[in-house]
Amino acid sequence: MTNIQFILKSVATAAINIQKTVQLLQEDCTIPFISRYRKDTTGNLDEVQIESISKLQKEFEFIVKRKEAILKSINEQNALTAELDKKIQGSFDLQELEDFYLPYKKKKKTKADMAREKGLEPLAKIIMAQNNDDVDFMSTQYLNDDVLNEEAALQGARDIISEWINENIYVRKQLRRLYERKATITTKVVKTKKDEESAQKFNQYF
């Protein structure tokens, strides 16, 4: 996808108008100048449309740089498959890119990492597959010096499964859609804080 195609998804005008506007912006022309004195070049785009084009162009440039950084990081970990490379190259959604990168992002050691070190990932896979009803018995197969009982084995497996679910792109997208449709934000005054000086700038909301 080119920058013009990216901007066209959000700005209703001809591609040539966007191309000319981006060119003027890259020549350091200001938005008011373009909207007043370059109407013949931009197809009579107004100041709001030009500002949108400017923001989208910057967003496109940021996404391209972010993709390069993500691909480089994953490649350095020898984890970049052809399929993953194709998905990242084809995405121009910043949130989706971060979801792709999440499993490879450098982070502190998690409970799931510690469970893997104790040899519990195969147990997590068995539970995740939901093909075995007797998980308590299965957990006994994974006891060792670091996993002393069935509950510890099952908890380690749960930690791994939790990380898998958290890093699943489909799950993350569905949760975002749910919050977008259903979530509400509420506020209330903390009575013990309302008279403090730092709270007075919010007084009109009390």
Describe this structure in words.
The chain has helices at 3-8, 15-26, 31-37, 39-42, 47-76, 82-90, 94-101, 111-117, 121-129, 135-140, 150-166, 169-182. The two termini are 48 Å apart. The chain is an all-alpha fold and 206 residues long.
Summarize the structure.
The protein has helices at 3-8, 15-26, 31-37, 39-42, 47-76, 82-90, 94-101, 111-117, 121-129, 135-140, 150-166, 169-182.
Identify the overall geometry.
Answer: extended
Mean pLDDT across all amino acids = 94
Characterize the quaternary organization of these chains: single chain
Percentage of residues in strands = under 5%
Unreliable parts: none
Number of strands: 0
- Structural class of the secondary elements? mainly alpha
Essential attributes:
206 residues, mainly alpha, single chain
Q: Any chance you could write out the topology, listing elements then pairs?
A:
Layout lengths: L2 H6 L6 H12 L4 H7 L1 H4 L4 H30 L5 H9 L3 H8 L9 H7 L3 H9 L5 H6 L9 H17 L2 H14 L24
Helix pairs in contact: 2-5, 3-5, 5-7, 8-11, 9-11
